[in-house]
């Protein structure tokens, strides 16, 4: 038996995220879904796994929440259940940056489709920045991407402010695992006065799913936050670095 894995997020205005928790958790438990979902006033984020029908039911439920009609969902498969239990947590942010006022639902950088991303990576006048932490970058990244060597996403604003001058006048392109961190990063850069900033729509996972390996600018695998450890082109399980499963 294989399991359907859904990585999802949406920046949306939830007036009372606590009221959304119990119905969502009850549905997940009823359908045998496991994983983690985060709810905050800025939206929803997480990864879940289970049967295809069960995951679809939960995704449909989230689609119906306020502002979630355009929920970003990326599907993959796992040979074994990649999570031990189901958690629905209330948080201050669905991805922690700790910069007040940054709102991707209000203003965000331009999206670049995976099929167009190679042209961004190849452009000498564009600075491509990996917004993930240093541990994740160690598994793989795009050709020539800048690694900020952060320990957590909350370190990114400080890194940017310390290094912004060297990127002046350049187009900035950012990417992350599934799209959520780079989306918030572009919103942050917009708030810092950077006009020409873009990010990879759907993140690395969408790129590895849609772009043929023969045309890829990606090297290595992509770390994921479950027991699969990492995935490669076609979102095939890789495991530890260089260890095909």
Automatic annotation (TrEMBL):
The keyword DNA-binding does not apply. It catalyses: uridine(34) in tRNA + AH2 + O2 = 5-hydroxyuridine(34) in tRNA + A + H2O. Gene3D superfamilies: 3.30.70.100, Rhodanese-like domain. SMART domains: RHOD. Pfam families: Rhodanese, UPF0176_N. Its EC number is 1.14.-.-. Keywords: Oxidoreductase, tRNA processing. Signal peptide: none annotated. Residues 122-216 form the Rhodanese domain. The keyword Glycoprotein does not apply. InterPro entries: Rhodanese-like_dom (IPR001763), Rhodanese-like_dom_sf (IPR036873), TrhO (IPR020936), TRHO_N (IPR040503). Catalyzes oxygen-dependent 5-hydroxyuridine (ho5U) modification at position 34 in tRNAs. Belongs to the TrhO family. NCBIfam families: PRK00142.1-4. This is tRNA uridine(34) hydroxylase. The gene is trhO.
